[in-house]
Known about the structure:
Layout: E1 6-13, E2 18-19, E3 26-27, H1 31-41, E4 49-58, H2 65-78, E5 84-88, H3 94-104, E6 105-106, E7 112-115, H4 128-139, E8 147-151, E9 154-157, E10 162-163, E11 172-173, E12 181-183, E13 187-189, E14 202-203, E15 213-217, H5 224-231, E16 238-243, H6 254-265, E17 269-274, H7 287-294, E18 298-299, H8 305-318, H9 322-329
Parallel strand pairs: 1-4, 1-5, 5-7, 7-8, 15-16, 16-17, 17-18
Antiparallel strand pairs: 2-3, 6-14, 8-9, 9-12, 10-11, 12-13
Helix pairs in contact: 2-3, 3-8, 5-6, 8-9
Amino acid sequence: MTGTGRVLVLHVGGTIGMVASPQGYRPAPGFPERLRQALHATGGQGLPAFDVRELDPIDSAELRPRDWAVMAQALVDHWDRYDGFVLLHGTDTMAWSASALSFLLRGLDKPVVFTGSQIPMSEPRSDGLGNVENALRLAALPALREVTLCFGRHLLRGNRARKLATAQFDAFEAPNALPLAELGIDIHLHRDRLWPATGPRRFAVPTFDDEAVAVLALHPGMSGAAVDALLAPPGVRGLVLLSYGAGNVPANHQGFMAALARAAARGVVLVNVTQCLHGSVQQGAYATGSALGALGAVPAGDMTPEAAFAKLHVLLASTDDADAVRRGMGESWCGEMGL
Length: 339
């Protein structure tokens, strides 16, 4: 399967463009030209025309929410000049960025494809060039009108993907959603699984506060003091709570629940996400989950922690109305949760 048109490749950073150093792999200048040479050396058969531009490349472990605005603005600035886009990004936080851009570029009418590699392209056995070639082909398909993640043998919805492996080429999965395409000898695109184009473009590039959202993973015996400490910074306005099972918390732990109640009372938006890979939050299924509902916590269904974190950041950067944030978290904007 091939498409036509011109694709912009944005090099954000990550393993794919790194080189070895005494301290380990690190970003290095000059990657766009090395990528062009590598792609042209393969003959470019079946690839669309493309340009390569470089943002300030970083190790993706250094990513902050403010970097999402840089990526989104680069896409907005070039949107009308290209038919599709590829972002080369580090694997550690790729799912977080793919989620964020899906919410910043609502109503998009062109493909946006994230990819990267597990081994630098400068090293033997690198998976980088194959991933880029697949991403380029996909980014030229007019039928693909969403933010996606292309890696190994699959194309996934960006806001459904999670990195689940550190040492395999198939590093990403979408635990609660089917792949959008299988990448084998041929590219098999499942058109019935694609997110439909809905309404006009609603592109937004707000100013992010890196500290606006905190994440709390429950563990047995967690204290109220630990919750208070996490939420103490005045900039924290949202909490992604990684709860047990179907959305349960230790409702009889008075100190813990009192700390959550104090946060809710000062306007912190609570979002309930399950720690489980598969399944969804059913906040009223158990009394221990209903206790969160009484505090106004938003059940996030089967949303991934990465998507919930990114969406909460986008909403909090876009409005000061906590009720509007809660409503937005409960809606499926672009396939981030099951309906």
